[in-house]
Design a protein that fits this description.
This protein is of the alpha/beta class and 282 residues long. The chain is built from 11 helices and 7 strands.
């Protein structure tokens, strides 16, 4: 079923059941919304810059919506949005932020359970870089997008930023160790979409047409230091460790991270933006 409200006929929706293990890294929507979303809001606006300013009446799908960075941008432009994520907690936070205006669906990008050829705009921000076969996710995005409709997906490039390294250094001093799932993804999965050529290849293999990939740098100047700190400490692989600390240690960690990040220049993350069109009708 689809939860929430929204105009337009979206067809029957089948929810994909996911195990607790699948969702283990995605359980804290509030932590994400208070930290990483402040950065991902900027990234979403940059990723969707190629869309028309107004999307009035367009049926839009945000896959891997998280707490709603791309959803909110699509809503701002007048899109009629459905949000999909594997995590009920993330979607609950999205529902809170949108006052229940957006229907939500718990599902995997590879098995959406949505009708073919339905959406005018389909977005998957920083999702395909979590798949060991990214073309499988693209194929599902292409399936639900009408012929000629827009598909936009994003991932990070290979460039890293000093803020991440500085925060990781502080975390290690407090005993933090990356969980195995994160280490494995960074080593084996992220490289599959981390270059323009690889990302474009996934788009073509997944059945999109008119595929292009833009390599852009997103300027995060103006975001306060606290936003940078919240961005890193609220990430899915770090937030559980932070939550496990007692109040005193959590405050000390936070102060140490602020001190490490404050002297650094604003982050300028490298983002790859894949644009494609839905498959042509047979």
């Amino acid at each position: 079923m689809v939860d929430g409200k929204g105009g337009g006929d979206r067809g029957d929706v089948a929810v994909t059941a996911l195990s607790g293990e699948d969702l283990a890294a995605y359980v804290d929507g509030a932590a994400w919304a208070s930290g990483p979303q402040l950065v991902y809001d900027r990234l979403a606006a940059a990723a969707l810059a190629s869309l028309p300013e107004r999307l009035d009446g367009a049926k839009a799908l945000d896959v891997g919506a998280g707490t709603g960075a791309a959803t909110l941008e699509l809503l701002r432009r007048g899109g009629d949005v459905v949000a999909v994520d594997r995590s009920p907690s993330m979607l609950a936070e999205l529902t809170r932020q949108t006052n229940g205006r957006v229907p939500t669906l718990v599902a995997d990008i590879r098995r959406l359970g949505l009708p073919d050829d339905t959406y005018d705009v389909t977005v998957a921000a920083f999702v395909l870089n979590h798949l060991d076969r990214p073309a499988d996710g693209v194929r599902e995005l292409a399936r639900v997008t009408r012929a000629g409709g827009r598909v936009i997906a994003t991932t990070f490039g290979t460039a890293d930023h000093p803020v991440k390294a500085a925060v990781d250094d502080v975390l290690r001093r407090f005993g933090y160790v990356h969980p195995a799932w994160y280490t494995n993804i960074k080593r084996d999965v992220v490289p599959l979409t981390a270059t323009s050529d690889a990302f474009a290849r996934a788009g073509v293999e997944g059945g999109l047409t008119d595929v292009s990939v833009d390599d852009i740098t997103v300027d995060l100047a103006g975001l306060p230091v606290e936003a940078m700190v919240g961005y890193r400490l609220g990430m899915a692989h770090i937030a559980p460790f932070v939550a496990s600390l007692d109040d005193a240690d959590r405050r000390t960690l936070h102060e140490a991270v602020v001190a490490a990040v404050a002297p650094l220049p604003p982050m300028q993350p490298q983002m790859l933006v894949l644009n494609g069109r839905g498959r042509a009708s047979a």
